[in-house]
Amino acid sequence: MSEPTAFPLRLPEMPLHDPFIVADAESGLYHLYTSNLDSSGTPGVGTMVYRSPNLRDWAEPVPVFLVAEEGAPWAVHGAWAPEVHRWNGRWYLFTTLHDTDAPLPVPRPGEYGTPFPVVNYRRSTVVAVADDLTGPFRMLRPAAPILPAELMTLDGTLFTGDDGRPWMVYANEWLQRIDGTVEAFPLNRTLDAVDGDPVVLFRGSDASWITRELPAGVPHQIAPYVTDGPQLHRFGDALVCLWSTYEKNRLTGGGIDGDYVQTWAASRTGRLEGPWEQREPLVRGDSGHGMLFTSFAGELLLVLHRPFTNARGKLYEMHWDGAELKVVRQRTDLDGD
């Protein structure tokens, strides 16, 4: 696919959810991936990319992955939270697909009171590969999920251990766990099958500030603890995991009601197994599902979406002081106003 020649868009004009940015030095362009919308010019479930030379001026989006072209009998809806990672000389797309016609067991209704409001169904993060950041990405395993099909695995991301071993880190849905988790499965070298037993990094309830913010009258033992959007970033010997959840959350007849937040945890050992220390949220105000990246100028930046509905991308300058991850300022100058 040819590089864009016009960059007419600004972040406030760009519908997106669960943004993921690759700063590609070879092309000199930032690639922002999100779920495919009609604005890409090609309708259908999948992934599209916006491109920019400076994080302020963006080209019209183009599709890079379309589920309908894959012939995957179970993966027909969703295409949430796309991420693109370099592995063994190629680009790999991770995105969450689901099938509403493949039901899964739900927790007992009494665990929430009555009734439990959601029907669970197959949901899993898939992996697709391409030689170029603009695709087309093709699924490694169209016939079935890579992770166990009985698990609702959301927002998978690639993590490489110190030994070079690849892992898929993902959120195991609160819909299935009640107390949602962030977990990881080791993968084989071709990223198309699990290669060992899973590891639980942490649970949503491990963040003590969530319990502190629960509304009066909601027992913490039955409150739904959402875990969304894990993304890992190394700072020397420390390992940071961004993740999102809801504060002041409560279960309603339609699902979760609360304020979406961007939070984080740190593994001082630098190991995936932790132990993980939960920290206070970085950004509130119905914001979340963020990721860290380094700009061409060497700045540490956070991109996330806000608000949860009708979302737009927001950029923040960040600082790691050796112990704490901190927001320096929101980069409203990149909104183009």
Automatic annotation (TrEMBL):
It comes from the Bacteria. It holds the Pfam family Glyco_hydro_43. GO terms for biological process: carbohydrate metabolic process. SUPFAM superfamilies: Arabinanase/levansucrase/invertase. GO terms for molecular function: hydrolase activity, hydrolyzing O-glycosyl compounds. Gene3D superfamilies: Glycosyl hydrolase domain, family 43. The keyword Nuclease does not apply. Keywords: Glycosidase, Hydrolase. Belongs to the glycosyl hydrolase 43 family. This is Glycoside hydrolase. It comes from Glycomyces terrestris.
